[in-house]
Amino acid sequence: MAISPPPPDGETAESGLDERLDNVLTASRSSRWHASATRWQAAREVAAINYLQATLGTERFLPPIGGWAIDYTVAAAILDIIRRHGRPAYVLELGSGSGTPWFAAMAAQAGGHLVSVEHDTDHVDRTQSLLDHYDFQGVCTLVHAPLIPGADGASWYDPDPILSAVGHHKVDVLVVDGPPARSGPNARRPALQHLAPLLAPDALVVLDDVVRQEEQQVLTDWQHAFGERLQMLPIVDRASIFRLLPTDKESSR
Ligand SMILES: C[S@@+](CC[C@H](N)C(=O)[O-])C[C@H]1O[C@@H](n2cnc3c(N)ncnc32)[C@H](O)[C@@H]1O
């Protein structure tokens, strides 16, 4: 057992004890809060997995998600919206990984297509192997777009391979889950500036990882830039999901 040092000058043994007791109580409250948050998160994920199992219509065991990939709650929320959309969904994912086969399965079910964008060649190979394993080659175009510095010096995907993969299609669902934070500050901010012109009217935009301060900042910047065109759908905690309404000019066409 550790022997406590004598109380510092001016402090009685009792006041030192009070402070230690406060610390113990604070630590205990904090671990109770974490245990409760973990339990709620597990409950949310179970509800989401049940929904995905009941509605996604694949018998394959798709790769487990969460962590680096989108989590089950985000996947379930996106699937629900795609199903309500009621027509083929064209999905564009920035940043590929274990979630990519899930988006491919959603696009396949909706009779649509997925374009998944990846800057890192090792991850291109890894994701391509996943798509091959699940026979999703026909429903997903995996695009290698290296990160290049923009006018402001910040790196983002080379837009050319993205634009040529999307071609004349309008994007119904844009998932902003890359580039990774390590590629620069507010790495995801340029996404809407580059891709807003490709979006269908009322397109759904998903910004994953908004629990992080950087993504909160990106969201705030987008809210300033797009104002009332950005309509939040408060469905899940981990991601911001919103519709980007067309400009007045676009909607009067
Ligand atoms: C947040 S991840 C993208 C995840 C993807 N949208 C998904 O749901 O699986 C962002 C980038 O991290 C890299 N990445 C993907 N999976 C990874 C992993 N398991 N560990 C480390 N980096 C990963 C890739 O370069 C990817 O573009």
Explained architecture:
The longest helix has 43 residues, at 13-55. The mean pLDDT is 91. The protein has two domains: 12-55; 62-251, 3-Layer(aba) Sandwich (Rossmann fold). It is built from eight helices and nine strands. The termini are far apart. The protein has helices at 13-55, 72-85, 100-109, 121-133, 159-166, 190-195, 213-226, 248-251, and strands spanning 90-94, 113-118, 140-144, 147-149, 155-157, 171-176, 199-207, 230-232, 240-244. It is of the alpha/beta class. A hairpin with a 7-residue loop joins strand 8 (230-232) and strand 9. The strands form two sheets. It has a seven-stranded mixed β-sheet with strand order 3-2-1-6-7-9-8, with helices on both faces. Bound molecules: S-adenosylmethionine (SAM). The site of S-adenosylmethionine (SAM) has 16 residues, from loops.
Structural Rg: 23 Å
Gross morphology: globular
Low-confidence stretches are none
Give, in order, the helices and strands: HHEHEHEEEHEHEHEEH
| Beta-strand content | 15-25%
Integer average pLDDT: 91
Tell me which CATH architecture of the largest domain applies here: 3-Layer(aba) Sandwich
Question: What is the CATH C level class of the largest domain, in words?
Answer: Alpha Beta
Widest β-sheet, arrangement of strands: 3-2-1-6-7-9-8
Helix content: 40-55%
- Determine the structural class based on helices, strands and strand pairing: alpha/beta
First and last CA, distance: 77 Å
The unique ligands bound to this protein are: S-adenosylmethionine
CATH topology of the largest domain: Rossmann fold
Number of helices: 8
Please count the beta strands (DSSP E, at least 2 residues each). 9
> What number of domains?
2
What about the largest sheet?
Answer: 7 strands, mixed
Under CATH, the homologous superfamily of the largest domain reads: Vaccinia Virus protein VP39
